[in-house]
Amino acid sequence: MEYAKSMDPFLQLPPDQKLEFFKAFSCIWGGIEGSFRTVKAGGFEKRWLVMPDNSYVVLDDLQGYYEGDVLKVDKQTAARLFKPAGEQALAEIMLPMVQNKMNDVEFVTLAAITSWTCDPTLSNCSEETKTLGKITRDQLCADLYAYYANVGIPDPDVRFGNLLLMIPALLEFARTSLENFRLVKFFDMMNYDKILDDLFD
Q1: What span, in angstroms and rounded, lies between the C-alpha atoms of 134 and 10?
Q2: In 123-154, which positions are buried (b, 16+ CB within 10 angstroms) versus exposed (e)?
Q3: What whole-number distance in Å separates Cα of residue 7 and Cα of residue 140?
Q4: Ramachandran class of 51: left when φ > 0, alpha when ψ lies in -120 to 50, beta otherwise
Q5: In Å, what is the CA distance from 170 to each residue of 20, 47, 173?
Q6: What phi and psi, each to the nearest 5 degrees, are found at residue 69?
Q7: Are 22 and 4 in contact (CB under 8 A)?
Q8: What is the pLDDT of residues 13-47, one digit of tens each?
Q9: Contact indicator for 28, 171 with CB cutoff of 8 Å
Q10: What is the pLDDT of residues 98-146, one digit of tens each?
Q11: Residue 56 pairs with which residues in a beta bridge?
Q12: Where in this chain does the record put each NR LBD domain (predicted)?
C-alpha cells in the first residue's frame, strides 16, 4: 500500500477507484516483486522462489514447503495447483529479467506501468481512471527514457521495448494468481488472511 500511495496519480483517485487500483496492483506486485527478489537473490538459476523473509521454496519440491496446519488438502494437490504458476514466473517473468539484466529503476517503472494498464480482468476502472492511467503510463515512459539518456544506456529503444514486452506476461501471471486464490477460497483448500476477501471478492 505504501508503494501505491507514493504515486501521485493514485492519490487523485476517488476511494472506490483507489480500491479497484489496489486490487490490480496487489496481483501484479506479487508477481513482479517476487520474481525480481528471486532473481537478485540468485534463485532463478536454482529454481527457487525466494520469499519476503528471504526463506525460499524449491519449485521442484513444493510438497516440502507446505507444513503445519495451513493446508486443508493434501500436499500433492496443493503442489499440482501452485507449481504451474511458479513455472510461469520462471519462464515468462524471471528469464526476461535475467536476459535483460533488469535494474532497480526498470523494476519500479515496469511495476508502475503495468499497474496503470487498468486490466479489466483484474479491476473495474472507471473511464476517468483509465484516462489517468494513460497519462501516467506516458509520463513513466518519458521518465524512463530520460533516465536512460542520463546514465548513457546503449540502445535505449531496444531495452525499453524488451521491458514493455514483459507486460503481457505480468498481467497473465496476475490473472493466474487471482484465479488460484478464488480456487483456494471456493474449495476451502487452506487457511489464509481474510483481508484478502476484501481485495479479491
Answers
A1: 13
A2: bebeeebeebbeebbeebeeebeeebeeeebe
A3: 11
A4: beta
A5: 18, 19, 5
A6: -105, 25
A7: yes
A8: 999 999 999 989 999 999 999 999 999 999 999 99
A9: yes
A10: 999 999 999 999 999 999 999 998 999 999 999 999 999 999 999 999 9
A11: 50
A12: 1-201
User: 48-50 and 56-58: which strand pairing?
Assistant: antiparallel
**Cell numbers at residue 136, please?**
501516467
Which cell goes with 38? 528471486
C-alpha cell at 67: 507444513
Query: Is 159 buried (19+), middle (13-18) or exposed (0-12) by CB count in 10 A?
Result: middle
Which domains, and CATH codes, for the chain? 17-200 (1.10.565.10)
Task: Count CB neighbours of 95 within 10 A.
Answer: 16
The pairs formed by 156-160 with CB atoms below 8 angstroms and a separation of 24 or more are 159/100
